[in-house]
Amino acid sequence: MKNDYEIWERFKAGDKSALSYVYFQYFHSMFQYGIKFKDDPDFVKDCIQDVFIKLIKAGEKLGATENIRYYLFKALKNVLYKNMMKDRKTGFVTLEFDVPYALEEEISEKENASEREKALANALSQLSPRQREIIYLRFECGMDYNHICEIMQMKSDSARKLVFRSIKSLKEIIEGYRTTPVLFFFSFPQKHVF
User: Fold this and answer.
1) What is the DSSP string of 95-147?
2) Measured between alpha carbons, how far is 142 from 24 in angstroms, rounded to an integer?
3) Which of 155, 148, 154 is nearest to 133 (CA)?
4) For 147-158, what is each residue's pLDDT tens digit?
5) The pTM is what?
6) Which domain holds residue 118?
7) What's the total number of domains in the chain?
8) Which residue in 170, 159, 76 sits closest to 127, CA to CA?
9) Which of 12, 68, 88, 132 shows a CA-CA span of 20 to 30 A to 111?
10) Is residue 94 part of a domain?
């Protein structure tokens, strides 16, 4: 497939190969994002299906995008919120990014996790839900600040400040846990950042 803009235009036009590509290319990352708001795999899968049904129905009316993952994450977050509101009888619902990162789970399952891994898992677990979400979007998903602002409904300078404060918090927690320089903790490959 070509770049995101061309794929998306074909998707909007009803091209079945583009639909298949978008679905299979992004389902897993959408699921990983959604499960961090509600630890209910069936609910999240249903929400992803709702996103694709709405997108297919909208067809040519959809906006253009040069970043399909951003577009899908934003749509999924909206659908998660709406579906959680339907399920909740009491009214107001907040979406909190509260489920552990895969790295935290992986470390907790390891019998012989290193001190470095334990410190990182501990630090991640102490971040606020918004800090966890912005770190995930910025470093695990590689999203730029404009897209993060759209997804998290915040201003650009606020997003940058939140990333800075989140990293500062991680460093402080890690430094309190052990004496190894903090840069050592952030030297692993990006796919295992969080």
Assistant:
1) ----SPPHHHHHHHH-TT--HHHHHHHHHHHTS-HHHHHHHIIIIIS---HHH
2) 19
3) 148
4) 999 999 888 889
5) 0.73
6) 102-192
7) 2
8) 170
9) 132
10) no
